[in-house]
């Protein structure tokens, strides 16, 4: 187990300070929701989550929300992973049915994330670094914007932080029960966003290799237990999908929408390169897919065309398969352009390509443009500190891989899909913790310098 410095903040002092920061985080989120009140687009992910939660609260199950809203028909859906709508249905079951009330509920979820980031900072570095990480998380727009705009990333970032904490606990004491807990966390993260599976693999497999005092067989067993438990957690939803759609849908039908809209003329060149686009061919009958960040484009550009929900034969899984084939066919025909497009996707996700244009694009999801830009600027300010923090932890011989794994996962997902700063959410806890490590180290250096200069002043 790594030797953690106390820096005078052990025990109740740390807990009290973290609790105070959490209260500030809650206040920031509630004030932002009430005062700024970001809009929720009528047709988009946030509205879909809201409607799904309402249907679940009324016992209707997972049905396509816009089909039900516009055409009053009930069709099964797996367009979105199930866990976030299920969580959002809890306040609805208690009588909180408005978007505003559901956003207030997510403010508490976001506050829990802040506290967990503080605990993660304490485990990876020190209690002081943990408090700095929590304080940064409390006021970081890239976190509280997800709560205010009613997006699944609000729950996903909490579960990613749980995965990281569980990974460090398993590393500290590699008994099977801790790897079971890690597998449960990976499974729940996957049921919130499908890339949780990739995160689990990237975290768990190398982690098993780092375990000390275990044989190769035992290390393989630990990794297998973790990933096996994750599959067990996901399996009931996958079985439900097989029954409803008569095909294999592990987590979501959203991949078809994503692949089709990310691989077309508009996103392989020009100002929209690396983004996601949608073509509305028949307004009123076609509904958008997974992203609210869509604007009408020329039909000839062959981007995702929406779903023709007015067709009585419409089947979500079949439509997703058709869209997947269309997007992959386009990508295969333009393999020469794909490396450049993939690089731009990654740079966009990491806020390093056409940032003003990227902010405009992401504001289409309901994020206030000014606050999205403030979040981008704060991210830029933290990024150099995070790099320094990673170097510091390596020099201290601390385990850094779980934190680095989140950045690797985000990069792989962006390269395969499209550029969106929202997709960076899985790496935000690591970013904040690593930046806090550097800031705390700088503060300690300043304190030591002051302490060393004090006798000289007295002597003088």
List keywords for this structure.
globular; 1% strand; two-stranded antiparallel ribbon; disordered N terminus; 460 residues; 66% helix; mainly alpha; 18 helices; 2 strands; single chain
Description:
- This protein has 460 residues and is mostly helical.
- The protein is built from 18 helices and two strands.
- It has helices at 12-36, 45-57, 65-71, 83-93, 99-124, 127-138, 141-148, 153-172, 176-190, 196-210, 216-245, 254-262, 316-333, 338-349, 355-363, 369-395, 401-416, 428-459; strands at 286-287, 307-308.
- Strands 1-2 form a two-stranded antiparallel sheet.
- α1 (12-36) runs antiparallel to α5 (99-124), α9 packs antiparallel against α10 and α17 packs across α18 (428-459).
Radius of gyration, taken over Cα atoms and rounded to an integer in Å: 23 Å
Q: In what range is the share of β-strand residues? A: under 5%
pLDDT < 50 stretches: 1-5, 281-285, 290-300
Q: How many domain regions?
A: 1
* Biggest sheet descriptor: 2 strands, antiparallel
Order of helices and strands: HHHHHHHHHHHHEEHHHHHH
What shape does the CA trace take? globular
Helix segment count?
Answer: 18
Q: In order across it, which strands form the biggest sheet?
A: 1-2
Percent helix = 55-70%
Distance between the termini: 45 Å
The chain-level mean pLDDT equals: 91
* Global structural class: mainly alpha
Number of strands: 2
């Amino acid at each position: 187990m790594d030797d953690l410095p106390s820096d005078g903040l052990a025990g109740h002092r740390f807990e009290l300070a973290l609790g105070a920061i959490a209260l500030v985080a809650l206040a920031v989120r509630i004030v932002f929701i009430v005062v700024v009140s970001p809009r929720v687009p009528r047709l988009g992910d946030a509205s879909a989550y809201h409607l799904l939660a309402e249907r679940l609260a009324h016992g209707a199950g997972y049905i396509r929300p816009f089909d039900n809203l516009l055409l009053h028909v009930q069709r099964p859906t797996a367009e979105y992973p199930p866990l976030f709508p299920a969580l959002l249905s809890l306040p609805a079951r208690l009588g909180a049915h408005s978007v505003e009330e559901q956003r207030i509920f997510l403010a508490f979820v976001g506050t829990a994330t802040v506290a967990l980031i503080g605990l993660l900072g304490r485990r990876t570095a020190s209690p002081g670094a943990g408090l700095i990480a929590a304080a940064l998380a409390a006021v970081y727009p890239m976190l509280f914007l997800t709560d205010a705009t009613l997006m699944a990333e609000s729950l996903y970032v909490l579960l990613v932080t749980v995965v990281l904490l569980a990974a460090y606990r398993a590393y500290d004491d590699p008994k099977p029960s801790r790897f079971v807990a890690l597998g449960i966390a990976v499974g729940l993260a996957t049921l919130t966003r499908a890339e949780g599976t990739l995160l689990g693999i990237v975290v768990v497999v190398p982690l098993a290799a780092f375990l000390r005092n275990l044989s190769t067989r035992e290390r393989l067993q630990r990794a297998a237990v973790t990933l096996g438990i994750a599959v067990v957690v996901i399996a009931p939803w996958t079985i439900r999908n097989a029954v409803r759609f008569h095909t294999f849908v592990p987590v979501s039908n959203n991949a078809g929408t994503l692949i089709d809209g990310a691989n077309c003329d508009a996103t392989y060149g020009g100002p929209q390169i690396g983004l996601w686009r949608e073509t509305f061919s028949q307004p009123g009958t076609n509904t958008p897919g997974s992203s609210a960040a869509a604007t009408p484009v020329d039909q000839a550009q062959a981007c995702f065309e929406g779903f023709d929900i007015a067709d009585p034969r419409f089947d979500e899984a079949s439509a997703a398969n058709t869209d997947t084939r269309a997007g992959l066919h386009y990508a295969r025909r333009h393999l020469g352009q794909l490396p450049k497009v993939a690089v731009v996707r990654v740079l966009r996700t990491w806020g390093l390509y056409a940032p003003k244009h990227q902010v405009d694009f992401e504001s289409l999801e309901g994020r206030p443009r000014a606050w999205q830009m403030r979040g981008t600027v704060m991210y830029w300010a933290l990024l150099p500190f995070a790099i320094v923090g990673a170097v510091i932890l390596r020099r201290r011989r601390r385990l850094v891989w779980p934190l680095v794994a989140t950045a690797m996962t985000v990069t792989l997902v962006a390269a395969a899909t499209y550029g969106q700063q929202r997709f960076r959410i899985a790496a935000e806890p690591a970013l904040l913790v690593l930046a806090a490590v550097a800031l705390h180290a700088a503060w300690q250096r300043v304190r030591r310098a002051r302490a060393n200069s004090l006798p000289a002043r007295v002597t003088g």
